[in-house]
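User: I'm preparing a small set of examples for a lab meeting where we compare how different chains pack in three dimensions. I only have the primary sequence for this one, and I'd like the structure in token form so I can line it up with the others. Please keep the answer compact; I'll paste it straight into my notes.
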Amino acid sequence: LYEEHKKPNRAEDIYLEALPLVEKTMGPNHVGTALILRQIGGVQYSQKRYQEAAATFGLAAQAFIRSPDNKRKPFRVSGMLRRKGHSHIFLRQYDEAEAAYLESLAVSEAAIGPRHSRIAACLEDLAGLYRDQFQMDKAKEYQDRAKKIRAMNR
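Assistant: Understood. Below is the structure token output for the 154-residue chain.
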């Protein structure tokens, strides 16, 4: 609600107040803990506090990894790693972004195989990263893989 009304500081305060309560009642390895961390990271990202957002998305990914298995776990982990990578891009921390994107790709491919549309999104992230660094051959390789997947999923 506070985020919708353009009061992200208040939203973050509420999430930060809730986090220790959720960790205490549900445990640090509960999906609820990871979801709150995801929200905190989102507020930080929206405020262009990319260093903090990258760290928080990393914590959220780890919390999702430690949470009990469920069907959505790989998607949540992959999503947090992609957001972490996006944060590093804004900071021009390309090595960290690449590591996050590659881990996101590996998690996704292990969960859903190499031809799913979510894989295309991971590949497009990597292509963009390599374009930003003028590594055009690598960028083209990942973009071409993404295009093939998107074509197969139409």
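A couple of notes for your slides: The chain has a mean pLDDT of 92. Residues 8 and 43 are 6 Å apart (CA to CA).

User: Perfect, thanks.
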